[in-house]
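FAQ: What does a ligand-bound record look like?

Like this one, built around zinc ion:
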Amino acid sequence: MMKTLQLFLWVISFFAYTACSSGTKKDESTHKQDKSEDTEHQVKSDNNANAHWEYSGEAGPEKWADLCPAYASCSGERQSPIDLSSSIGDRTEVTLERTYNCISGIEFLNNGHSIQVNVTGDKPNTLTVNNQVFELKQFHFHCPSEHTLDGVAFAGEAHFVHVAENGEISVMGVFIKEGAENEYLSHIIPFIPENTGDKSEITDEICPGKVFTANDKYFIYEGSLTTPPCTEGVNWFVRRDYIEASAEQIEALKKAMPAHNARPVQPVNDREFGKLDE
Ligand SMILES: [Zn+2]
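The answer part, i.e. the structure of the complex:
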């Protein structure tokens, strides 16, 4: 009986193999579904590590993983953003300490996907997670928010991207809700580079620390970059309290970015996540 079954499976796999092998030279008998598409991917991307991607259409989020081999992580199991639940449990094993300084004369870049402030200066802005030091490299914006809270998106989300010496990444996400004018953003918005590829210098002094308070609480989980190459292993800290910005300020951010530059929420899968007090 077993032999018959084995033979049956062999015959099935043989025909399946021959049916899919005409366009490729691969000799594996698994993952055949992928093979017929390989050629197409290579034509589109030419193995380019920086294949063009967008927030909708042919190069939209559902297609990112297929655009080029370097974006394969975009179909991974531990991706960001995710839907956060206000009822999740606490995590107490993580310690978080921020040391942010005020800065001026820094670069503001419109990269076509977002508007991004590149943080430089003599005094590093650091985030220390369990004694590991991460340096703030840039912050940028999404409208609407990428993470959602109990299924609902906010008007916007700012991402503060920190990198450790070993290349590990920690991102702090801050929800932006429409409301009162935001003083911090009022020193940034006048310098927005309007069009893709534009750069400007923020001559006002800005203080990233003003976005946070000493008693902040965070949603914490392990995820990924929310844009290609969707690298995993990113430590996420999403601030539980939103900041407010006026309708005009949110409009100014949106005007300089692609409409809806937010990746859809990804499956949580088998991940530990929880709340954290700073
Ligand atoms: Zn982001």
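Follow-up question: can I read anything off the structure? Yes, for example: The longest helix spans residues 2-20.
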